[in-house]
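Thread: Modeling a multi-component assembly for a lab meeting

Hi all, long-time lurker, first post. My supervisor asked me to bring a structural picture of a complex we are working on to next week's group meeting, and I have zero experience with this. I have the sequence lines for every component (274 residues in total). Could someone generate the structure of the whole assembly? Inputs are pasted exactly as I received them:
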Amino acid sequence: MPELPEVETTRKSLLPLVRGRTIETVEVFYDGVIKNMPALEFCQTLTGQRIEDVNRRGKYLLFHLSGGYSLVVHLRMTGQLVFLGPGGLPGPNARLVFFLSGGGQLRFMDTRKLGTVHLVPTGCWKQAGGLAELGPEPLEEGFTLEAFVGLLKNSKCAVKSLLLDQRRIAGIGNIYADEILFAAGINPRRPANGLDPVERERIYNAIRDKLGQGLQHRGTTIRDYVDGKGERGDFQEHLQVYSRAGKLCQRCGATLVKCVVAGRGTVFCPRCQR
DNA sequence: ACAATTACCTGTATGC
DNA sequence: TGCATACAGGTAATTG
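Re: Modeling a multi-component assembly
Sure thing. I ran the full set together rather than chain by chain. Output:
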């Protein structure tokens, strides 16, 4: 499940491999991945454009192209963007293949077909998908404690729901939400507007800590995630709660409990997160 | 206006 | 062994 650390790791690994290369040919194996135009128009528009830069916003990857267009990619659950040498079979999960100048190819693979691609004029890349409504980047300087407190005060929803709401904070998904709340010692069901100042600051610090740790470990590979070079992350070896239901809390020894919050599987420690 | 639920998808795990 | 079912979850669309 690519979240901010996984998408950013993909961006960083792809950038030196694809920047400056020209898209010579595009092959579409699953039309449904392209959300805002027919496949033929998509291929024709992309052909001949050079990749100038690769950016990230929330969980979206943005490929800015020389011809005035930007390719906006969301990996959703099982999407992978991998750079490979020339040749080789595309494989059953290949949805798009971009053949690049210099002999390499950028493959978008996605077992579950939930990933999305938009091709938009660079000047209005915010119109693609849900980009227009994304909240602040949690690792940027503008995301202060005061800004975070402002988000919490007006919302009575469960604090985990708030962390997952991309309109409020961009980039946090189910894995990091559970890890953040464990690190902060906060029960996922606690109403956001019922937290005291000390608790708010613990969550704020945990957001930065856990996303930063995820980045340092080059992401979490539970099953599908790999970066732009096809390499797995290793933060899964450091998870405290996610995917550990029924196992023992490494802090207090209690048995970790699984429940449903905001419609998603949620693991927490009933003793450390009351 | 806001919150909860369903649709989109398929590989994996589980139950009978 | 084979088949049916539940589950995984990010986001858009729908329902309450």
